[in-house]
Amino acid sequence: MKFQWFFLTVGYSGLSPKAPGTVGTIASLPLGVAILLYFGPQTLFLAALLITLIAIKSINTYEAASNNHDDQRIVIDELVGLWFALSIAPGVGFDMATLMQWNNGIAVQIALSFLFFRIYDIKKPSIIGRIDREAKGGIGVMGDDIIAGFAAGITAAIIWQAILKSGFIG
Asked: Where are the domains of the chain?
């Protein structure tokens, strides 16, 4: 149970008394960016998918034992949502040497992915809110953040492409 709680709270970041979701997302960012930069977006996507499958089962076990649906301290869903966003957003090649170059765009896309993921996760527009309200168990906990992550990644990529097409950068 100790490891399960460590996993579900993303290293206990979900135990923050204020804004556990935001704290969990911030805690998830460095590892997600490291995986993205060193192993690529495909690996980050697959890692998020694997964690999703493990988390759904773990959340179902936790909820059955505690009778508590969508405990705010569980923030593994924020990790997965952010990692999906980060894996989708990069539309250009990059490496560590060019990370902070504006014409590369990865730093901007990381920031946009984080920002839009938090907006979509907090506001829960459209299907994101519907999944949050209606789906039960681990699927319900994870589903809204997965969709928010996909939406955030797509939004970040579209905005970055608009910036490039505008001629502002490049």
From this structure: 2-166
